[in-house]
Structures
1.
Amino acid sequence: MNIVTRKFDTLVVGAGGAGLRAALQLSNAKVKVAVVSKVFPTRSHTVAAQGGMNAALCNVTADNWHWHMYDTVKGSDYLGDQDAIEYMCRAAPETVIELEHYGVPFSRLENGSIYQRPFGGQSQDFGGDQAARTCAAADRTGHAMLHSLYQQNIKAKTHFFDEFFAVDLLKNDEGDILGAIAIDIESNEKIIIEAKTVLIATGGAGQLFRTNTNASINTGDGMAMALRADIPLQDMEFFQFHPTGIAGKGMLITEGVRGEGGYLVNNDGERFMERYAPHAKDLASRDVVSRAIAIEIREGRGCGPNKDHVMLKLDHLGSDVIKKRLPSIRDTSITFLGIDPIEEAIPVFPTAHYTMGGIPTNRFGQVVVPIGEGTEHALPGLYAAGECACASVHGANRLGGNSLLDIVVFGRAAGNHIIDYLKENPHHKALPEESATSVLQRLEYWEKNTVSMTESYTVPQLKAELQLVMEENCGVFRTEEVLEKGVNAVKAIKDKLSKASISDYSSVFNTARIEALELENLVEIGLATVISALARKESRGAHSRMDFDKRDDVSWMKHSLYFMKNNLLTYKPVRTQAMTVATFPPKERVY
Ligand SMILES: Cc1cc2nc3c(=O)[nH]c(=O)nc-3n(C[C@H](O)[C@H](O)[C@H](O)COP(=O)(O)OP(=O)(O)OC[C@H]3O[C@@H](n4cnc5c(N)ncnc54)[C@H](O)[C@@H]3O)c2cc1C
């Protein structure tokens, strides 16, 4: 292979919160680590996180990590693995304090301790009064975290490959993942990064849907790389729709608005969440609030000339609270709507937000795959963390504030496990020459096929088609008929993409080639999502089937595993046993 090759102990693909937290653990332990990111690290999507990160610090209300665990299990609609959830909730307070010591400028209470706001699905004493568990840096928590983690990595001398696009994982004949091939986006030069261990931390796939809260970089690349390496994706049918996206545009208005006392009203001015969740009201979990909004609109109580949204009211909070606690929300609303929320309500509608499924891992961040009936094993040296992974702590519905927690807890856990693994496995394994053959063929296709040469579909057209198909056929409410249409439509798009071309300007801007590779990834994630959704014949968390409208614990307390080869689906049981505490058996989920 005539390609530049670099060797490291660990390759981390992704420089969001998960990748940077893992890299920091590794660099501080003197592991030679390379972080590859398709954007400059501090532009990673973690930067957009607004409301905060959950941890039972007890700064505002009484709290306990076990209550946090209960809320997370209930929020997951009992599909989350309870050992992993216990691990995450126990570790939460310590990881927040660590971040504070790394320099994250959390907002403060009068007494100087970290400010915490109430978020959806949080309770005291196993379902009692509302808890305030979300540690916040105003409404820019992700920005604060990402910048602090990046600075700490610079100090620890982590090696960054900024604006390099990882295309695929590379493996030997035994199936060990030994690195990846990447492209320097500016020059289109290829590079092979060989490593003894690889961590995938490439974030979510919100770009699957037309209206979403995600940046254009969130195209599920790492998940698709895993699929192509014969690794399945878990629980892909569960995609979170956030209740309060700006109507018609999708940008997020954080749940922190409702945490600070904002609430939703319909066309009659009614605070309708009181009917759907009498106890938690507007702070019920996200799937519940999104469905309530969709029902209000379907039954004709939507607002505006087309009755197609509801209103989020926060003017009663007063300008001091809005300016101090929600400054970015105010900016967003003024910029995109010309509405100052100090004076007027914001029009909102559910918007695609978070990928609950992903690369299956255990609580150490190791990627686990099935090996026969009921057993699985961890792939040596391969790890995943963050939104691209499925640990599984979010199950069928993630609680707000639990993702920033997930990325730092499991980023750190993966880093720790890698350090131990490298002590036992200090040498590089040989990477065969032909390991990159198929990926080089793919790259060659996109180098040749520009629109000037062939009359065919273009990448931007097909991306728009995919996003519309997913929105119309795999949204908040689903049925057999609509999902079947979705499966066929995404398969047709995959077929068209295999004959598509990229714009002429690709000779000038490599980004056109990158967009083609990203779309290939998105299409695979779309198929995984819609095929898994068609197969699950029950309603649980974010997966709401109008034709199977009840949760079915007898048949469906299990995780789906989707393989790219033959679009195969298998299942594995939910881990219902916690590590050290009593578990929470499934019961009816009311808020
Ligand atoms: C608007 C918004 C607000 C949110 N607010 C909150 C909140 O308040 N609290 C909360 O808990 N959660 C929140 N979330 C969710 C949370 O921010 C994300 O789930 C989390 O930050 C994901 O972190 P990550 O490290 O997994 O991935 P990301 O931060 O998305 O980083 C992914 C990294 O992978 C890199 N990458 C991807 N593909 C490639 C490739 N092919 N080659 C090279 N590099 C690649 C990217 O460059 C990037 O560095 C919010 C999400 C959104 C969209």
2.
Amino acid sequence: MAVRVGFVGVGYIAKEHLKRVLTDPEARVVALCDTEPAAAEATRASVLEKLRGTAPEELLTPFAKAPVHTDPVRMFQEERLDAVFLCLPPFAHGEVEFAAIEAGLPLLVEKPVALDLPLAREISGALRAKGLIGAAGYQSRYSQIVPFVRETLGDRTIAMTLAHRFTKLPPRDWYRHQDRSGGQVVEMATHQVDLLRLLVSDISTVYVSGGRRIATRETSEIFDASVASLTYANGAVGSLVTNMVSGHGNPAYARGIHIIADGLTVSILGHEGESRTVEVVTADGRQERTFADDSMAAQDRAFVRAVRDGRPELVLASYEEAVRTLATTLAHQESAETGQPVRIDTPA
Ligand SMILES: NC(=O)c1ccc[n+]([C@@H]2O[C@H](COP(=O)([O-])OP(=O)(O)OC[C@H]3O[C@@H](n4cnc5c(N)ncnc54)[C@H](O)[C@@H]3O)[C@@H](O)[C@H]2O)c1
């Protein structure tokens, strides 16, 4: 039996998930919910236009006919669902998760899973108490890059990491408000932080300088440039450098993550959602390998299959791990605001 999926929040990232879930024969998208129904309809039209002629009609028809709700609680009560994708803006978490958990629904929640750590921990506890699968939208954990880098590093000692995220301010009104997006590291460079936690170790201390210079100067709310010193729990050190003023382009060195270990350097060049190259430098020379795997498709299929077969271990980016990453990015924000180093307490 196919997994009956509902979507709450049907904007930009929901479109990316829909394009993938609608080509998974194990899933049927049967209900949509957005406080702005016109946004959901626009997303639906654009996805159907893209997939018509390529995806099987039996997968597209339920989606084409899916009712559009404006109240998630009613959607959970009125529709027969097996799982829900929550593609909400960062500020909109809380009530929707509790209502879904109350209805017994497994969740895939887009990152950042909340802007408030106690709330995220409460949701994590509620998922655990009900034995429900909780997944988070850290699709890089599903990329073939992860096993490749792990194998390349083996058990070598890692000395340091460098990570960059240089980009432009995304065109969403909520993005420029601190209490709505959480700022660049909580909202976006969280992907880098999560991957570093996975490949290196938990981060135990952050010490950050933040600047508000260009992209958000009218509101002066969020930092548009930051430089962070990281100390990992395993003793490695690192830097995370971000900005939202580089819409004009990036120099080659300023893309992705570099891990410097005993006898080799591994660089993951590019970001999630792009074809990425991994470069390995040793005393013998330099090797490159390109990865064009669709990690979001792998993530979405893994979630659907985990729900269908009752196999939570297929979820590689759990809600609990997302809470630990949130603890780290919120500590980054606190350090940027106070100018003080912040220690991170990461139990989920
Ligand atoms: N994994 C990734 O690579 C990736 C990429 C982009 C965005 N995201 C994340 O996805 C989330 C959504 O971002 P987006 O760019 O799609 O935003 P968006 O503004 O394009 O879409 C969000 C939608 O949610 C709706 N909405 C808001 N509050 C709601 C509520 N209470 N109930 C129902 N609908 C509600 C809005 O009307 C809007 O249509 C963010 O957390 C963002 O960080 C993840």
